[in-house]
């Protein structure tokens, strides 16, 4: 079977590709496991570090219908649609956010419709669809009330995925991802970038400036658990998703202060001294609109997972990225 990962050169896209290569199979249209023969990694930049013959690296704009027609052919049965611009960028450049986060998804779904083979589509939405006047804990039934362009674009895509699925054009599933941390590499333009920076930079001996106060709540999930959940979402029968639309993934409720303390326990108290606290009102405004606590009974019943505690998240980063 053939798989397409949009945003395949990105943080989660490349981790997902490696996990799929190791696993070797995915559920085909019948629901039975089928051998993966090809994984196309479509991104605006070339995915690096893959030498497996099953990987096809493709560069192009996911918001260009001609590029999508080339990447999503009728032989592709599974799509993980991850290409996106992050929250900070979608907020500062409205046109860019609308093009990549909204238009590209419609183009992808239209191509799938044209192909007529009803591929499984896993769409990565975000807890940024929630904001504003929220209950102390977000429930499975809490309505999406985004307070930023990124969250609004994700919410609009969820609705499209649901409706294209209802019409039988795709077999789609949308997952609302928590803040995925610890992200390796460089800081990005996500407003939540600090949630990785405050761990990653000190563990690499570098000072990190935290733009939000220590009591800021974060709904967090490790990359390992996130990739596990993306694959799990693909493997579930569409009946498991019912008519309720996007799934709020499980995560850990923690605070920025607790995250730094976990790093101190795992890697030594001196790492904590490399975090400097300096509030940034623009970041704080966006982050404060996001919820920090959830009840995710539906996702847990469906078999989605979360990390045991933040110490485990820090340990996983050290094991996977620093050794
Ligand atoms: N990482 C998180 O904390 C988090 C949280 C919630 C939701 N998500 C969602 O998960 C998905 C993956 O996130 P990530 O952290 O891996 O992000 P990322 O920025 O590392 O990856 C996204 C990829 O999309 C690519 N891209 C952007 N515009 C493109 C275009 N026009 N054409 C082709 N490719 C393009 C980028 O080059 C990048 O490699 C995204 O949809 C994101 O919104 C992530």
CATH class of the largest domain: Alpha Beta
Mean pLDDT: 95
Q: Which parts are unreliable, with pLDDT below 50 for 5 consecutive residues or more? A: none
Can you tell me the CATH superfamily of the largest domain?
A: NAD(P)-binding Rossmann-like Domain
Q: Give the C-alpha Rg.
A: 19 Å
- Taking the alpha carbons of the first and last residues, their distance comes to 34 Å
Total beta-strand segments:
14
Shape: globular
Look up the CATH topology of the largest domain. Answer: Rossmann fold
Assign a percent range to the helix content: 25-40%
Bound molecules: nicotinamide-adenine-dinucleotide
Short description:
The chain is α/β, with parallel strands linked by helices and 323 residues long.
Q: What order do the helices and strands come in, and which of them pair?
A:
Layout: E1 2-6, H1 11-23, E2 25-27, E3 33-35, E4 38-43, E5 55-59, H2 65-71, E6 76-81, H3 87-92, H4 94-115, E7 120-126, H5 149-166, E8 171-177, E9 179-180, H6 194-203, E10 208-210, E11 217-221, H7 223-235, E12 247-248, E13 252-255, H8 256-267, E14 275-277, H9 281-288, H10 297-301, H11 310-322
Parallel strand pairs: 1-4, 1-6, 4-5, 6-7, 7-8, 8-12, 9-11, 10-14
Antiparallel strand pairs: 2-3, 11-13
Helix pairs in contact: 1-7, 4-5, 6-8, 8-11
The site of nicotinamide-adenine-dinucleotide (NAD) has 24 residues, from helix 1, strand 7 and strand 9.
């Amino acid at each position: 079977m053939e798989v397409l990962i949009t945003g395949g050169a990105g943080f989660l896209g490349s981790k997902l590709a490696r996990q799929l290569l190791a696993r070797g199979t995915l559920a085909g249209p019948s629901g039975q496991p089928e051998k993966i023969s090809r994984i196309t990694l479509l991104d605006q930049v070339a995915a690096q570090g893959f030498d497996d013959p099953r990987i096809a690296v493709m560069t192009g704009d996911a918001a260009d219908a001609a590029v999508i027609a080339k990447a999503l052919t009728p032989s592709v049965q599974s799509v993980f649609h991850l290409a996106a611009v992050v929250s900070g960028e979608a907020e500062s450049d409205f046109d860019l956010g609308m093009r990549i986060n909204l238009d590209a998804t419609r183009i992808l779904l239209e191509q799938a419709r044209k192909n007529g083979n009803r591929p499984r589509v896993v769409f990565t939405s975000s807890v940024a669809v929630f904001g504003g006047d929220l209950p102390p804990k977000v429930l499975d039934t809490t309505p999406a009330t985004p307070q930023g362009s990124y969250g609004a674009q994700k919410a609009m895509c969820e609705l499209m995925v649901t409706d294209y699925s209802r019409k039988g054009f795709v077999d789609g599933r949308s997952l609302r991802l928590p803040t995925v941390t610890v992200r390796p590499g460089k800081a990005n333009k996500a407003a939540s970038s600090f949630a990785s920076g405050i761990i990653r930079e000190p563990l690499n001996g570098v000072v990190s400036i935290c733009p939000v106060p220590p009591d800021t709540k974060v709904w967090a999930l490790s990359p390992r658990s996130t990739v596990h959940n993306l694959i799990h979402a693909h493997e579930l029968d569409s009946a498991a998703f019912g008519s309720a639309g996007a799934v709020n993934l499980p995560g850990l409720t923690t605070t920025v202060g607790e995250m730094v303390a976990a790093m101190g326990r795992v890697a030594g108290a001196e790492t904590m001294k490399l975090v400097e606290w300096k509030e940034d009102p623009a970041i704080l405004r966006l982050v404060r609109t996001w919820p920090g606590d959830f009840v995710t009974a539906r996702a847990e019943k469906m078999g989605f997972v979360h990390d045991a505690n933040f110490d485990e998240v820090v340990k996983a980063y050290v094991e996977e990225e620093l050794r």
